[in-house]
Amino acid sequence: MPEGPSIVILKDLIKELHLGKPEVLEVTGNVKNFDKDRLLHQKVEDFKSWGKHFLICFNDFTVRIHFMLFGSYLINERKKTAVKLGLIFKKDELNFYTCKVDLLEGNVNEHYTWQNDVMADEWSSSTAIKKLKEKPNALVCDVLLDQQVFSGVGNIIKNEVLYRARIHPLNKIEDLPTAKLKALVNESRNYSFDFLKWKKENALSKHWEVYSQKECPLKHKINKKELGKTHRQTYFCEKCQKIYK
DNA sequence: ACGTATGTTATCCT
DNA sequence: TAGGATAACATACG
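YS: structure for the whole thing
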């Protein structure tokens, strides 16, 4: 569920319901961070996403949902486990489980910089490059997971992007040639859209080149290690992915 | 059947 | 006190 493209899929599924600006007729769930009644009889102005955040925008506040590792949702269905937040409209309902739910006051644009989101129309590769250059000592395997630089990129995307760009995960930003830095930034968006397409076709895993693989496409042995300050599993090919220094 | 993991953050420790 | 380690969340997958 959790990486950016999966949130775009949720947004697309909701768009297909043609809800317009639906009024919340009933609110369910055990969300504790705010009073659920705040949403009652309010009109949803828009459904948005920013990276891994799913946003339900009202006139003067926004409900933010983060699915973390285990979160899930159902549209017009319910599961037996306790719902965290459920929104019931005239004809449809949305149910969110095992997620983190927060309420953001004011206009949503004051909370988010859309150009950080690899899936957004507003995405800015030049801004990403500028931010990377401000972190010369950071490792590429860490920086790809930095949501303030690559909002929406998760561990799968990280691994696949590094392989596509032929960059070894342990490179420092300052050691990468400019062309490689650009490749890193561009592939983070490119692969995210491929992820979206393949996930919709239920064919995500068969396109993995390194993530969860034993061999790379050139039949070299894949290394699997917990790397960087994030200690996330990193799959990489020592032969294909270069160390610059 | 069991170990692992598409993520984040609060809290405890050094 | 900054930082690092750890636990917590609950489910699907191989």
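YS: worth flagging: Residues 68-72, 81, 97-100, 212, 229, 231 of chain A lie near DNA strand C (CB under 10 Å from a C1').
IM: good catch. Also Strands of chain A lie at 26-28, 46-50, 53-57, 61-66, 72-75, 85-88, 93-97, 100-105, 223-227, 232-236.
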